[in-house]
Structures are given as structure tokens and as C-alpha cells.
Amino acid sequence: MLTISIDPILFSIGHFHLRWYSLIVTAAMFIGVWIAMREAGRKGFNTEDVANSLLWVVIAGLIGARVFHVIDHWPDEYAANPIRALYIWEGGLAIWGGVIGGLIAAAILARVQHWGLPRLLDALVPGVVLGQAIGRIACIITGDAVGKPTDGPFGFAYTSPDAMVPQLGVYYTPTPVYEILMNLSIFALLWSLRKKNLPDGVLTLIYLVLYSSMRFFIAFTSSYKVIAMGLNQAQIISVLVFAVSLPLLAITTLKFRQSYMKV
After folding, report:
1. 10 Å Cβ neighbour count for 219?
2. In terms of Cα–Cα distance, which of 178, 184, 67, 61 is closest to 121?
3. How many whole angstroms separate alpha carbon 250 and alpha carbon 263?
4. In a 3-state reduction of DSSP, which class is residue 9?
5. Model confidence over 118-143: pLDDT tens digits?
6. b/e map of 140-177 (b: 16 or more CB within 10 Å)?
7. Farthest-apart Cα atoms in the chain, separation
8. What is the pTM assigned to this prediction?
9. Which residues of 244-262 are buried (b: 16+ CB within 10 A; e: fewer)?
10. What is the distance between the alpha carbons of residues 200 and 122, in angstroms, rounded to a whole number?
11. Could you tell me the residue ranges of all domains in the chain?
12. pLDDT tens for residues 162-202?
């Protein structure tokens, strides 16, 4: 059991607050983009064109992440003060919203630029999942994604009045830690497979299958609001993504093997 006494606000100048959340999420985005650029160049994309386009993918991902979070927490956090929905620097990003927003932007850009979408996504996805792991460190400091109260053996309690937890001094399940470990394990696998002779799109589908299945079970430790059938927003989306991506992975892999055997 650990007590976190770090103030989520790094320093203040008048009404301006620099928060750990903003700093860490920004670092996560830069590292993710750097890896994506490296992989895009290795896969034959024009890195300058990709660099210009990635800004829109990042923006779309942030908008999607914020929108999904606000929808999920509207009654208890934002209904009374809707302007707070714009305070993204305080914390509160739904990862599935970020993934879906980024996917939509990538699909549009691939069509405009005449890029192969599966190949482009395979270049982006290792950076995406590593960025997710780094970004969750911000949640540990802010306390905005902790799980249910726990008696141990592993839990976080917060002492800073700026922490976004229901109650100070109470130990909560460290859901962000589990998600960090999940994301790092997926990144390690994708990084080891990225130079293998795999058909375009397989890396992305592997990410979606693993992330959706693992996130489904980790989300049971979270304190997210139940929406239907005893499941929260993250779990429902995980089920839908898994149901689509697993058959696509099987079909893509089978077609590749069949074509390889014919050669």
C-alpha cells in the first residue's frame, strides 16, 4: 500500500497552473510521434508528409478521448459546470475515444494522401501503445483513473487536495499501474514483430485484439460508471472491438498463408 503525496500541480504563476498531467501527456505524445515517424520512414512513407499529417491524428485522438470521458462522467462531473469539459489539462481522457478518434483521422488522411491505411496504421501503432503506457503515469499522479477502494495488498492513497480522487486518505485499486504493464507488454510484442514478414494491418489487429481483451478484464478493477449488463463504457467498447478485430486478424493471417503457400 502506497501513499502518494505529489501535488498534481507542478507550479503556479498567478492563475496559471502547470500540471504534471499536461507535462507527462505531452511527453507521451512526442515519444509516440517520434516512434511513429521512425517506423513510417522504415516502411517507405515520406516522413515529411507523415509528420504534417500526424498533428491531425493527435488532435483527433485528443478530441475523441475527451469527448468519451465527458460523456461517461457527464452526470457526476460536468452537468453542473459544462465549461469544465474543456479543461483537458486537469485530466480525464478516455483511451478508447483517443484510439477511435485517431483511427478516423488516419483513415481520412490515408485516403487523401493515397496511402495504404493498414500499412500506415502498422507504422503508428507501436508508438500509440507506448504513448498510452507513458500517459497513464500522469493518471497515477493526478488520481483521475484510480479503481475501487481496496484493503490491499496493493493500493494508492492520496494526500494532496488537488488529487482527483473521491476521498483523500482512502486506498484505491491502482488501475493505471495495471494498464501501464498491459501497454508495455503489448508494445514489447509489437516491437519484436514489426520487422517480421507479416501482411499489412496485422500489427494493428494484434494490438486491437490484445488491448481490447486485456482492457476488458482490467476495467473490472476500475470505478467507471456501469452502463449496461454490468459493464462500463470501456468494457462495452472492448467487446465490440474484439468482436470485429479477432475475425479480421484470422482472415488476414489465413489469406496471407494461403498466398505464401502458392508462391
Report:
1. 21
2. 61
3. 20
4. strand
5. 999 999 999 999 999 999 999 999 98
6. bbbbbbbbeebeeeebbbbebeebbbeeeeebbbbbbb
7. 69
8. 0.89
9. ebeeebeebeeebeeeeee
10. 7
11. 2-198
12. 898 889 999 999 999 999 999 999 999 999 999 888 999 99
